[in-house]
Amino acid sequence: MKLSTVVVRMGLGAALVLGAQACASRQPVAESSASSERAPEDLSAYYPLAVGNQWTYRINGRADKSVTVRIVKEEGGYFQDNQGGQLTVDSFGVRDLKRYLLRGPLTEGTQWTNVVSVSSTERYRILQANVPCDTAARAFGACVRVEARNRVDAETTLINDLTFAQGVGLVRMELFVERSGGERMPQTSLELTSYTVRNAGAEARPGDSR
Q: Which of 50, 72, 81, 147 lies most in the core, judged by the most C-beta atoms within 10 Å?
């Protein structure tokens, strides 16, 4: 796997893809350190999915470089966006074709593992829950911050730091490469600058840029 491939895909708006080498699967294999029972929270609030919803992010903090992710259709229970992403929310959490991006309970320390291929295992942990967060779009009162780790080899681990805001979705993504000594090297970041979101059957709710 080339690290540059992951970084490029992240920067182009496929911010939810960790590990470009993973084989696509309609059903991710996930193991949770929490109870194996279904999460009681309605996690759809942390990634509202409806055709027409869109999020615009600035890339690497640059005002002149941005990407807009727009949901263009729903097919087979998945909402597909203009960047090639596919997302759904089931009784366990928010996921794409390969992995759960967010699972309950939404409390600090909740962990789960996604086995996305024979050679690729991703380990997720909630770092913060129900905390405020600030973005270029606006400040949000209830956010969840998730760290995803994917060990590439003995010397290299990919770390994806994802922040979700209740009622909005993904508002921040930071990708790092961590070397064996613990040094983290920033690779790509996305920060929300504007959005238009509605829940299924609800009116669109725009978010203004600053």
A: 81
